[in-house]
UniProtKB/TrEMBL annotation:
PANTHER family attached to this UniProt entry: ATP-DEPENDENT RNA HELICASE, ATP-DEPENDENT RNA HELICASE DHX35-RELATED
GO cellular component: catalytic step 2 spliceosome
Enzyme class: hydrolase
Keyword Transmembrane set for record: no
Cross-referenced InterPro entries: DEAD-box_helicase_OB_fold, DEAD/DEAH_box_helicase_dom, DNA/RNA_helicase_DEAH_CS, HA2_WH, Helicase-assoc_dom, Helicase_ATP-bd, Helicase_C-like, P-loop_NTPase
Domain of life: Eukaryota
Name of the protein this chain belongs to: RNA helicase
Organism of this sequence: Amorphotheca resinae ATCC 22711
Matches recorded under CDD domains: SF2_C_RHA
Enzyme Commission identifier(s): 3.6.4.13
GO MF term list: ATP binding; hydrolase activity; RNA binding; RNA helicase activity
Domain Helicase ATP-binding: 31-196
């Protein structure tokens, strides 16, 4: 085919018209199915238009009349925000107007919002106040194939809700891979799970039967077929060549960087998408590309590396969707996020490390880790598919073909490898007391359930009959933080440190993005960090940082700059704190009183102060009431052992306890990197506090 240089005289449209998306041809059948059946399963390649178009079709078809809202859930916060921004753009409104999003601690919706993107976890939370989710006419559970913990729970809850709202609620489940049958079978379930068929509607039923035979087992079309249908939007894709390594790579990050350079220098135009597992790897790779790009021939096409992971700000994430400048090839280093949740146009080459970071909870040690794990075949296939969206592509797998053959078929659903305490608490609060009999799409292993019940019991959220306690258990479920922190917050008034714990809760929920430094400033950042250090540990240090921020840093941007503090993250902490405070006030807890005590306290806790005589101890005691299960003892060699004894834990380099002496400590979280397990946000405690505040737990342990 001859290539004309049309680019000179034509300006490309901002977006590919939505009418050209694969989904457009299916608009009528989609709307018909959704109108007719309680459940519609939509299967389609990533990029076919499910997330961005379906809600718009529904809105236009009148599903938002009488003030109802369409909810679209996402397993990831990032996906919820980016997609909302995109759809608002297509609709031509501001985000938060007709189209909005809602993620934990960030609600960008208004009374005008008709299409609402939100995380699946947040929708579950909404069910606490609106048990039938009655404000929604349609709930689309997007990216269901990811089988996130909250997605699975949500599906079970929706199945229950559907029994109560068989006629006015529609559920759409969208999935990138073919697990559609599983989802439909789940909703079919036992006979009494069937919503009643409109008997008068015989004609429609006939139609259904006629229609249904194409995608369902014929037998079920008689009655069982009334629950739902599967629709397949076979999106257009181009062939993707798959290339393997001859022998395994020692360091896949390094190999990925090399491969990117090889593609850049040897392969024709087209952007590159690289799958790595997390932020650190991605930052390393981006940096390596920037450094080595300098060695490229000055007249050669340049190479622009961009990161994509959940911790980035919305603006930073948006860069990856922008077209690269002229004569520049874009390379995006991404976590699993780009596997299916977001679509980046122009990708022709995929480099797949073969790894993904997965959460795994060990019920024996009680430790949850986030570990780089080999992907499943389904994931690898999905990743490769990202290369063939606009023209034939290539996928470079940084592993051997034999390793590919030995991969699991599909990723183990999160529900089978997670700490279930938060979701069990939520289910209980939704009135689902018998967890074992709850309709799980895949049931969790018994030991995970038992472990979660034990923890909730020792936290005081459950009574001897495994019923939610009042008010403690109920309140813990309502608070938008995980159970251990919820308990800490709710214990705080009795230690006279509610204001401080509110701050600590807000700061720890930022997930370690408090510090900020440019390349080569790491040393200076470290010493800046030490200025806020409090001997007793990281939690009190976080408190110091926050105090300094609200008294000085909020007003002068220079303060944050000089102290290597992340202005955005800290501003977020202020907002999160305010939201948590509102919860507590709703419970009738007096936050004002402790605010004044925090003022009194400013002095003893201030920079380098080492904590007041009592306040610091009260805070540490209070933390112990929630985090006793995350206790560890320092060993002579400076490492820690958790209570169960088996696991060697290292203080994270960002922790004050790194290279310092301590005896017993509690920690906020555990991270496994490489073959080391790190604990982060660590604070010294006394051993006897553990028995004092968690006698049951320490009895169970023995
Ligand atoms: O949900 P699904 O993967 O089926 O597709 P989608 O996210 O609705 O994307 C449909 C189209 O919109 C794709 O061609 C994307 O390239 C485009 N899109 C975009 O350009 N920017 C976004 N933030 C989201 C989608
Ligand atoms: Mg999508």
């Amino acid at each position: 085919m001859a290539e004309f240089d049309l680019a000179a005289s034509f300006i490309p449209s901002l977006h590919k018209p939505a009418s050209l998306l694969p989904i457009a041809r299916h608009r009528q059948s989609l709307l018909y199915l959704i109108e007719t059946y309680p459940v519609t399963i939509v299967v389609g390649q990533t990029g076919s238009g499910k997330t961005t178009q379906i809600p718009q079709y529904l809105e236009q078809a009148g599903w938002c009349s009488d003030g109802k809202v369409i909810a679209v859930t996402q397993p990831r916060r990032v996906a919820a925000t980016t997609v909302a921004i995109r759809v608002a753009e297509e609709v031509g409104c501001k985000v938060g107007a007709e189209v909005g999003y809602s993620i934990r601690f960030e609600d960008v919706t208004s009374a005008a919002t008709r299409i609402k993107f939100l995380t699946d976890g947040l929708l579950l939370r909404e069910a606490l106040v609106d048990p039938l989710l009655s404000r929604y006419s349609v709930i689309m559970v997007d990216e269901a194939h990811e089988r996130s913990l909250s997605t699975d729970i949500l599906l079970g809850v929706l199945k229950k809700i559907l029994k109560k709202r068989p006629n006015d609620l529609r559920i759409i489940i969208s999935s990138a891979t073919l697990q559609a049958e599983d989802f439909l079978n789940f909703f079919k379930g036992d006979a009494d799970a069937e919503p009643k068929v409109e008997k008068s509607d015989a004609l429609t039923l006939d139609e259904l039967i006629a229609q249904g035979s194409s995608n369902n087992q014929g037998a079920d079309a008689e009655l069982g077929g009334s629950i739902g249908r599967i629709i397949n939007l076979e999106g257009r894709t181009y062939p993707v060549d798959i290339l393997y390594l001859e022998k395994p790579a020692e360091d896949y990050v390094e190999k990925a960087v090399q491969t990117v350079f090889d593609i850049h220098t040897k392969e024709p135009d087209g952007d590159i998408l690289v799958f790595l597992t997390g932020r650190e790897e991605i930052d390393t790779a981006v940096q390596a590309i920037s450094e080595r790009a300098a060695s490229l021939h000055p007249r050669a096409q340049s190479l622009m590396a961009l990161p994509l992971y959940a911790g980035l700000s919305t603006e930073q994430q948006m860069y990856v969707f922008e077209e690269a400048p002229e004569n520049t090839r874009k390379v995006i280093f991404s976590t699993n996020i780009a596997e299916a949740s977001v679509t980046i146009d122009g990708i022709v080459y995929v480099v797949d490390s073969g790894y993904v970071k997965l959460r795994a909870f060990n019920p024996t040690t009680g430790i949850e880790t986030l570990t780089a794990t080999p992907v499943s075949k389904a994931s690898a296939t999905q990743r490769a598919g990202r290369a063939g969206r606009t023209k034939p592509g290539k996928c470079f797998r940084l592993y051997t073909e034999a390793s590919f053959q030995s991969l699991e078929e599909a990723t183990v659903p999160e529900i089978q490898r997670s700490n279930l305490a938060p979701v069990i608490l939520q289910l209980k609060a939704l009135g689902i007391d018998n967890i074992v009999r709850f309709d799980f799409i895949t049931p969790p292993p018994a030991e995970l359930v038992i472990r979660a019940l034990e923890l909730l019991y020792s936290l005081g959220a459950l009574d001897d009959y495994a019923k939610l306690t009042r008010p403690l258990g109920i309140r813990m479920a309502e608070l938008a933080v995980e159970p251990m922190m919820a308990k800490t917050l709710l214990s705080a008034p009795s230690f006279g440190c509610l204001s401080e714990i509110l701050t600590i809760a807000a700061m720890t929920s930022l997930g370690g993005n408090i510090w900020f430094h440019h390349d080569g400033e790491k040393k200076r950042m470290e010493s800046a960090r030490r200025k806020f250090a409090v001997e007793e540990g990281d939690h009190l240090t976080l408190l110091n940082v926050y105090q300094a921020f609200v008294t000085k840093g909020r007003k002068e941007a220079k303060f944050c700059h000089d102290h290597y503090l992340n202005f955005k993250a800290l501003s977020r902490a202020v907002s999160i704190r305010a939201q948590l405070k509102r919860y507590l006030e709703r419970f009738g807890m007096n936050v004002e009183e402790s605010l004044s005590s925090s003022n009194a306290n400013k002095q003893p806790l201030s920079v380098g102060g080492g904590g007041g005589p009592d306040k610091g101890e009260q805070i540490r005691r209070c933390l112990t009431t929630g985090f006793f299960a995350h206790a560890a003892k320092m060993q002579p060699d400076g490492t820690f052992r958790n209570v169960a004894g088996g696991t060697v834990l290292h203080a994270h380099p960002s922790s004050l306890m790194f290279n310092r002496k301590a005896d017993w400590v509690i920690f906020h979280e555990v991270m496994e990197t490489g073959n080391k397990t790190f604990i982060r946000d660590v604070t010294k405690i006394e051993k006897n506090w553990l028995v004092e505040y968690a006698p049951e737990f320490y009895k169970i342990q023995r």
